[in-house]
Design the sequence.
């Protein structure tokens, strides 16, 4: 036996405002997390500090690391200078505006950094920058 209700029947409603709040919270969280992510393509070296350092890494850039012994690494792979020249020449042929970042350990001899810079320039790369960390103030 069915007992009638004294209240009038109502249709069920889906409250969308709390769902919108949750979606905005998730969107903001993912945006903040994605801003803090950055890819590190170089070998860990003890970078020299600079007062005017800025972060300008680009995803298609080539990162060259030189450790304190003078060993050259290209995107974390050990390389020799002739191999470096051929790799950079092929990258320049594919993209004339390719950027190269050179990260040298603070204890790396200055002459070795100049050798690497000369090889990068001789491969036809126009955009070369040295990677530094921001100096402590």
Sequence:
């Amino acid at each position: 036996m069915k007992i009638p209700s004294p209240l009038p029947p109502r249709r069920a409603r889906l409250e969308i405002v709390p769902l919108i709040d949750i979606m905005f919270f998730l969107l903001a969280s993912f945006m903040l997390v994605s801003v803090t992510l950055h890819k590190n393509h170089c070998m860990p070296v003890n970078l020299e500090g600079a007062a005017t350092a800025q972060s300008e890494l680009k995803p298609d850039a080539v990162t060259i690391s030189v450790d304190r012994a003078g060993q050259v690494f290209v995107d974390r792979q050990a390389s020799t200078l002739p191999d470096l020249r051929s790799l950079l020449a092929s990258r320049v042929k594919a993209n004339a505006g390719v950027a190269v970042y050179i990260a040298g350990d603070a204890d790396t001899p200055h002459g070795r950094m100049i050798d690497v810079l000369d090889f990068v320039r001789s491969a036809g790369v126009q955009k070369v920058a040295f990677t530094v960390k921001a100096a402590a103030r």
